[in-house]
Specification:
The chain has about 350 residues and is an alpha/beta fold. It contains 15 helices and eleven strands.
């Protein structure tokens, strides 16, 4: 791995800028590294830079937007946070609550692994297991939010969450000498996508296309784009549970009217193979949700999109958002490979 050149004092400048965006309060996220990946570049045939959100304090990009929303809710007098999450958003809520000295309840679906529940409890959150999928856990979370003094912290569908996530693009603008030719990211509920689009609009990079990745069985954004309206999947059948929103946010669908978005879907097996290859190549263990985005690079999808005329040719530089890895363990990777017959 090779780090991109950075202007002296850039990190301080970005922290100050983020603090200004968040009402003068110091944000809970860090300025994440942007590194060139030689292995991914070789696989894609172009320069690929990794925006390493997996090294955030809670292990994913979620702390950007969730942290911002929690700070604003606390400023307005919130006494208790409640969040529905399959892991990453709950982790960010619990972390922010601890920093702010407030209690948090995280409602998780039964598909959530015991190690994630344990980590949430270690951060001081009360964990309630409810429903099979995130959508059911979210209904329970909304019920609890009716308690006086409680604030609902939505994992992805809130303007303050998108505003917080937009900081990722502001950091790219501050470090890169020229804008990227494309940004590759995974889509679950659509919060990261909405935040990146907001960031692109803020910095004037309106012609930078976004290539989104989902897994079949958690492809609510792809289905909505194809239909031209929101689609609710009958169930989440993918092993990429962090992508498991049966209905994507309305804002995510609106984003496709504002910026070029190319939606791609991969098989679970492709995502898990990409997780394993990335571990070998870059010595970092990430979640299958992130594996979906990595699979687009490893499988040659970018070249295919170029041949089809959907992406410019040649491409100079692509940024891949390495969205997170907080719930992944070596044991879980072995289990996923066994489930999918990849052993």
């Amino acid at each position: 791995m090779q780090q991109t050149p950075q202007m002296p004092g850039a990190t301080c400048h970005l922290v100050d800028m983020a603090a200004q965006c968040q009402g003068g309060e110091k944000p809970f996220h860090i300025v994440s590294p942007l590194l060139e990946s030689l292995s991914l570049s070789q696989a894609a045939g172009i320069q690929v830079y990794m925006k390493l959100e997996n090294v955030q304090p809670t292990g994913s990009f979620k702390i950007r937007g969730i942290g911002h929303l929690c700070q604003e809710a606390a400023r307005k007098g919130c006494q208790h946070f409640v969040c529905s999450s399959g892991g990453n958003a709950g982790m960010a809520t619990a972390y922010a609550a601890r920093k702010l000295g407030l209690p948090a309840t995280v409602v998780v679906p039964s598909s959530t692994g015991p190690s994630t529940v344990h980590r949430l409890e270690e951060l001081g959150a009360t964990v309630e297991i409810y429903g099979k999928v995130w959508d059911e856990a979210n209904q329970r979370s909304l019920e609890l939010a009716q308690n006086e003094g409680w604030a609902s912290i939505h994992p992805f569908d809130h303007p303050l969450v998108w505003q917080g996530h937009a900081s990722l693009v502001l950091e790219l603008k501050d470090v890169l000498d020229t804008k990227p030719d494309a940004i590759v990211l995974a889509v679950g509920g659509g919060g990261l996508l909405a935040g990146v689009v907001a960031g692109l609009q803020q910095v004037g990079w309106l012609d930078v296309p976004i290539i989104t990745a989902e897994t079949w069985g958690a492809h609510s954004f792809h289905a909505a784009l194809k239909a031209g309206h929101l689609i609710t999947l009958p169930d989440i059948t993918s092993i990429a549970k962090c992508l498991g929103a049966k209905t994507v946010s309305a804002r995510a669908l609106q984003c496709a009217q504002e910026i070029q978005i190319i939606s791609e879907v991969v098989e679970d097996a492709e995502a898990v193979r990409a997780v394993e290859k990335f571990l070998d190549d870059e010595r970092m263990l990430v979640q299958p949700a992130c594996g979906a985005a990595l699979a687009l690079i490893y499988s040659g999808r970018l070249q295919k999109l170029q041949h089809e005329g959907r992406l410019q040719n040649p491409l100079g530089r692509v940024v891949l958002v390495v969205c997170g890895g907080s719930s992944m363990t070596a044991a879980l990777l072995r289990d996923l490979k066994s489930q999918l017959g990849l052993e």
